[in-house]
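Q: May I have one protein plus its fold?
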Amino acid sequence: MQPAELLSLSKEFGNPLYVYDADKIEVQYNRLTNAFAKVEKLRINYAMKALSNISILKLLRNLGSGLDTVSIQEVQLGLHAGFTPDKIIFTPNGVSFEEIEEVAKLGVQINIDNLSVLEHFGAKYPKTPVCIRINPHVMAGGNENISVGHIDSKFGISIYQIPHVLRIVENTKMNINGIHMHTGSDILDIEVFLYASEILFDTAKQFKDLEFLDFGSGFKVPYKKGDIETNIEELGKKLTKRFLAFEKEYGRELTLAFEPGKFLVSEAGYFLAKVNVIKQTTSTVFAGIDSGFNHLIRPMFYGSQHNIENISNPKGKERFYTVVGYICETDTFANNRRIPEIHEGDTLCFRNAGAYCFSMASNYNSRFKPAEVLWKDGKGHLIRERETFENLLQNQIMIEL
């Protein structure tokens, strides 16, 4: 999207504001499907925890996507957005058995990553198809908080516990129809991903009635000019070749599944905020905006970098700014960042705001959550209204004291 288009949306809908470009989401979806075009049965399950607005879900459903969910509420949102149960996979961690039962009764594919849960579910529902999430003990991901396939991770059943899994399957006669892994997010080296894939293939050989292999996702997107990203095209060539060979070895056609979230929506997202104050100290020039980590927590949470543009003065002389929010706590988006000269009242644009931004937003400091807009066919469509004071009071009860 162009600065002028974003600025017009800022004026129309106000700041702060999330904007999502429908065309970019479609481009990313097609990149992935084209990279694996030689796979007869390819399934993309959008990891909706990245961005769960029902209009975004509907857009992805229309592209042919399925859904990866991690809570009963996400499952319900997916069904509300028009996904059929057979297009949804449920991959929880540490949830109650009752929640898993509730999802199973909806006809959604269950993915289990715990031995005790697997045994309990198999004993009670032996005929219900179950996918098993393995932990390949492969360290991948750009941050320890998003590396989930290593030996100390809470996710997945250890590959060293597969004999135990096989005993449970034999004893319960349960139906295992898929094997799943997820090593982590922001994968830089596809060779590490391919190495973990070999572990998945080796594990799959021990289960005779599989219908699909799920390789998770974690594909890295660029966050700044010249930034490294996962080479999806090269991964597609190498993994397709290996997958087709495994199908012949296994003796039946399988579905190859992925669960991209950030890869599909991150670059499509823009976060717009107004500059409230320019404050100069003895060593720093602060640009204080009308937002904070209540709306964009990733820089404070993960140390992530979001490119920041001054769309009110895109061709201005660059100066160094530390961009901060209005939260009553350390609330820094960028330190000493080169940005075209900023004035009070300007609108700043944060790139890569499509994934884990609104979905992690909160009402900290009793601030309202912003509106969301989908840019499609050259027009901005409001897909979530800005919160009001009534939203803050909605579920509160004032008692007599």
Summary: The first strand starts at residue 17 and ends at 21. The chain is about 30% helix and 25% strand. The chain has a mean pLDDT of 94.
